[in-house]
Amino acid sequence: MLSHSFFGLLAVSLPLLVNATTWKQVKIGGGGGFVPGIVFSTKTKGVAYARTDIGGLYKLNSDDTWTPLTDWVGSSNWHNWGVDALALDPTNSKKLYIAVGMYTNSWDPNNGSILASSDGGSTWTEYPLSFKVGGNMPGRGIGERLAVDPNSPNILYFGARSGNGLWKSTDSGATWTQVTSFPSVGTYVQDAAYEYTSDIVGLAWVTFDASSSSSGSATKRIFVGVANVGSTSIYYTEDAGSTWTAVPGQPTTNNLPHKGVLSPSERLLYVTFNNNAGPYDGSLGSVQKYNITSQTWTDITPVSGSDLYFGFGGLD
Question: Which is nearest to 145 in space by CA: 162, 131, 128, 160?
């Protein structure tokens, strides 16, 4: 299974077992703010990258130290320190993509970009987007909202904020087209009373089911989580994105989906839900698994009753 890090809210490991664990601090050698996402390569053991909300991107070294990859960003392009999403090419661990931009409100006048690297982050090519990206906005721990098609890695999807919907690239991130058939841009805002928290959080994550197609063909089955609460929040396609349908039977209360991780061998989609986007809130949620074959959901939340007073974020 893909590995996703946690922040802010309670993280969950699969299978859900309670074991004695010793936790230690991890020094990444710089950065600042939160580390809302860590993504491990499914191609090469030991390759991992960590994104921060205001401190750029880091790469794990063989001695468990971390190397900063975006220290070339300066005062003229400061908005590129905010990394809102991170995606690795499942077929080539040296190829990675990040969605950069600091704020989607008036604090940052700049549109976002996709930064692409084919040498493990040593060099980058910047592809401007036509809308803003919010690496330091509410909901920055959900995701990943950027993903590479495992069967056709020239294809990428990006779930945008601010009501901008789902976007697709077929040329490795160089150009992007909005997926107008996708039915939801998200409705959740953290707090409409303040500028910083009043923007639409948007789409939460994109998860491919590699088993639905063969190598060289666009993956047919894709799941997309949307920052909605009280209404449909997960959609899927069976025709490589031409049409989209709500996943049947999904939760519709306290149901903002923070992470969606597929276990291909089990044909299960694991999802952590919350009643808010984080990182400063989240008082109720659940952990659920969706059986792709039977199209049924099972609640596997590890606590209940008075012990459940938080939402769930990370998923591993």
Answer: 160
Geometric angle at alpha carbon 4, from 245 and 273, rounded to 5°: 50
Question: DSSP of 127-190, one letter per residue?
Answer: EE-SS---TTSTTTTS---EEE-SSSTT-EEEE-STT--EEEESSTTSS-EE-TT--------S
Measure the CA–CA gap between 143 and 305, rounded to whole angstroms.
28
Q: In the 8-state DSSP scheme, what is residue 4?
A: B
pTM for the whole thing?
A: 0.92
- CA 130/CA 30 separation, integer angstroms: 30
Phi, psi of 205 (to 5 degrees): -160, 160
For tokens 């959080």, the residue is: 201
Residues 6+ apart with CB under 8 A from 54: 32, 33, 81, 82, 102, 135, 136
CB 270 within 8 A of CB 225: no
Spell out the residues 6+ positions from residue 117 whose beta carbon is closer than 8 angstroms to its own.
69, 94, 95, 96, 97, 123, 124, 125
pLDDT in tens, the chain (316 residues): 333 433 335 555 444 445 678 887 777 766 567 999 999 999 999 999 999 999 999 999 999 889 999 999 999 999 999 999 999 999 999 999 999 999 999 999 999 999 999 999 999 999 999 999 999 999 999 999 999 999 999 999 999 999 999 999 999 999 999 999 999 999 999 999 999 999 999 999 999 999 999 999 999 999 999 999 999 999 999 999 999 999 999 999 999 999 999 999 999 999 999 999 999 888 999 999 999 999 999 999 999 999 999 999 888 7
Tokens encoding 152 = 């056709």
Query: What Rg, from alpha-carbon coordinates, does the chain have?
Result: 18
Contact 94, 118 (CB under 8 A): yes
